[in-house]
Design brief:
Length: about 120
DNA sequence: TAGGTGACGCGGT
DNA sequence: CACCGCGCCACCT
């Protein structure tokens, strides 16, 4: 797939991240079919490539840290948005992925793949 | 064209 | 847990 399609896939994956849960860059890259492109997911969000409505605040790094917090309107914006929907963020900007991580099922992954196919991306 | 960058991730120490 | 090296890859000088 080309880069534009990859960004479209990211946007679709974003719609599946449940409120009150968080996903990782690597997880999104995997669901998009490019497991080695986690860096590009970060790039896409930073540049708004996944669309205005994408819940970027629900995306953290593999350790659970709010690694992109500095790129929001204010440094505490991501933390506030997460806490507003019940996600606990520690003083050092970390979330417990065991508790709040989105542990997507194989079924959800398949559903996404079907959506990609149907949209031809 | 070559080289540097980074909202990443994994494995080793 | 921290720190480090390395692989990764689209972008941007």
């Amino acid at each position: 797939m080309n880069q534009m399609d990859f960004y479209k896939r990211i946007a679709l994956v974003g719609e599946k991240i449940p409120a009150g849960k968080v996903a990782t860059y690597g997880q999104i890259a995997l669901l998009c079919g490019k497991p080695n492109n986690s860096r590009q997911v970060g790039y896409a969000l930073n540049r708004g490539k996944a669309g205005k409505g994408f819940p970027a605040y629900r995306v953290l790094n593999s350790k659970g840290y709010l690694s992109g917090a500095a790129s929001f309107e204010t440094p505490d914006m991501q933390r506030r948005l997460l806490e507003k929907e019940g996600v606990k963020v520690s003083d050092d900007d970390k979330v417990d992925l065991k508790k709040f991580g989105w542990h997507h099922t194989l079924e959800e992954a398949k559903t996404l793949y079907e959506i990609f196919e149907k949209k031809g991306i």
